[in-house]
Amino acid sequence: MPRCRIALIAATLLLTTGGVRAADFDQAVEAYRVGKYEEALAAAEEATAEPFGEMRWWHLRLECLATLGRRREGVEAIQLAQRHNTSDAGLYVLGATLLRNAGKPAEARKLLEELLRTAANNPWRYQTADDRVWLGRAAARLGNDAREVLEHFYDEARRLDPELREVYAATGDLALEKHDDRVAAETFRAAVEKFPNDPDLLCGLAQSLGNEASTEAAELLNDALAINPRHVPSLLAVAEEALEHEAFVDARAALDTVHGVDPKHPRAWALRAVLAHLQADDKAEAECRKQALAAWKKNPDVDYVIGTQLSKAYRFAEGAAHQRQALKLERDYLPARTQLAQDLLRLGENDEGWKLIDEVQRDDEYNVVAYNLANLHERIVSYATLESEHFRVLMDRRESQVYGPRVLELLEQACATLGKKYDWYPKKRVTVEILTSQKDFAVRTFGLPGGDGILGVCFGQVITLNSPAALPGSPTNWQATVWHEYCHVVTLELTKHRIPRWLSEGISVYEERQANRTWGNRLNRDTRRMILADELTPISKLNEAFRRPSSAAHFNLAYYEASLAVEFLVEQFGHATLRDLLADVAKGLPVNVSLERRTGSLDGFEQSFDEYARQTAARYGFDIDWSDEPTPPATDTGSAAIAEWLSEHPRHLLARLRLAQALLAERKPSEAVPVLEALVADVPEWSGDDSPYALLAKAHREQGDTAAERRVLEELAVRSDDALAAYRRLIELAAAEHDALAVAKNFDRYVAVQPLDELPYRVLANGALNDDESDAAAPVAAAKALVALEPADKSGAHFLLARLLHRHGDPEAKRQVLMALEAAPRFRAAQRLLLQIVDSEDQP
Known about the structure:
- By secondary structure, the protein is mainly α.
- β1 and β2 (391-395) form a beta hairpin.
- The relative contact order is 0.04.
């Protein structure tokens, strides 16, 4: 549904001296801009009742009738207007809008085709910038190539009049339609700078920003509605965003306002159908869809809107069904084809999904989503496929050889563990796709680049993940992410995708911590402070915490609070109650109603949880001064000055940490040790990058006390799931002491964060050569992974693997040593090993 472009009316024709005064027209346009549509319509009808009324008044009249949903009157007005002017481009485009909305798409198309044909035969008639924009809109609606529309119409209009507001609007609309959010945002942002009080442009900019700038988008929509509280495009955008986050009251209020403007607005009725669907009201859903199709029974946009919103709510199967219905109504309706392709890929129906993406990209070359996905498909078609009983993993072929078996093993472990707890197992293989670049992950997941900071996404039976190679500067524990996302599979499928976000995320983080004490969001300095400052969101409104968090810390708080709420529920009422909650949600019962039923009182549950959370936070660093005030001296002040300041603030944590840092900088590790040991004792759970563990290990290392250093690093390792430097150092220390068990333990920790680094594989495999262990599986697997990583010393890697294989009588050793010699023909040790292997083959 195109946004209204009333500002164009003011620029369509030069003001004339005849007829209604210019001031009257300006007042009518202003009335329209602020939402006084009826007042504007009355003025336009009066002006067009005069003989030879100006076309700008006819434009205004048609715009008002379209906005108010008076379709029959609009069709009659078109006929009247064309008696006065049979060539005005604006009349054709506005008329086509009214005809299509009135259920006459063939007549609408005929009108647009007639306009373009007239323009082609009589180009001298359409030479103004306004004319070029109208012609461009007509061409775009007929499905002409978007780049040609830009070059032949909109760029030409901009050349004729660089200050024309409408050319910005038309360009931005076209970019939005083709999912080119970057171009749309650039265009609308430039337009808003020139025309800051234009609700259409503010709304266009908001829609182009996407979820990554949801707060700014919400502010822009608020600005648009402050200017025009009845601005239909902004109200629809507000409703869609509210539905996506299950803010049903907000969605209903916005739709009520839309229907106050146009009681028969099809898109608003389609969104009401979505609202009914999400509240499990089948009867109301059917009635709303019927109302949406009342004016035009074959309107494909209705099912497209319903399906798209359901997909945003993770109801991909239902969403795909509506897209198929839209395509039954209009076979080549591109928006539905694009959305259906994405839905199919998210449902794991890849063959049909990729085929449809190729078709859309061929038919609509400017469709950015289709273009991105088609290019991605070409890149990942060579990915390896690994399968186990319950999973199908697609990943880079080289990476699959390095840690692919670990992925499958972990997934099956998660399936067994969570299956036992929740009594759910996949009926078909779950697809897990691990993408080697963040951009590829974003395109596979969202269709567009973006999504920075997101590690993985679960769509139900399909999981997409960033490979460790995709996040080289941000090492994270991929195993924790895999467990988290598979837990989403369980809860989404158990609840038929009806689970609210807070509960789904809360269970996933909670189950992370149950599986491994180092995994999952944990209490830290920021969350402790916010909890004790009463910044928790009531459980009954916890979805709001995920909607538009004001900062990264608040987003982290939302995850932690959700997981703590699940933990509290299980502790107080048992895991069976959590399963009953999921069963209620699956039946369509709102989660707050289920909590009331299962806990006895929602208010009581919230109050008890609030106290539980506060006590949990208070225990973290009890009797410690966590404040930033009074401000302690900076680290570079010197230890003496910091120690003097601490004499008056002895429990101030930040100052104590700075004292230790200053002592280490002054090469006084022996004095830093007791300070750091006291900090560790006071807050043993503090294991982040800024914790005292790493500093304490450094102090011991500088004193030459490797035993103490190793002990401290182990304390850090059992509390952190991504302490890569600590794991690396523990591997080195264990290898130096020939402690094979410690090497293996820290090897597992290391590759859970960074499986593409040569070091752990080389150390584990080399260490096995010095031990008489009977089980060679882990060292051999490590050596094979090292070979797959294609290190600079390829011959050395093959030789290492050959030695391990030969030691255990594996005939593959001969091929590996030959590959070592192929890379380095004069490799004497490899030559000797080859002779040994040949001699052993000659033995009976």
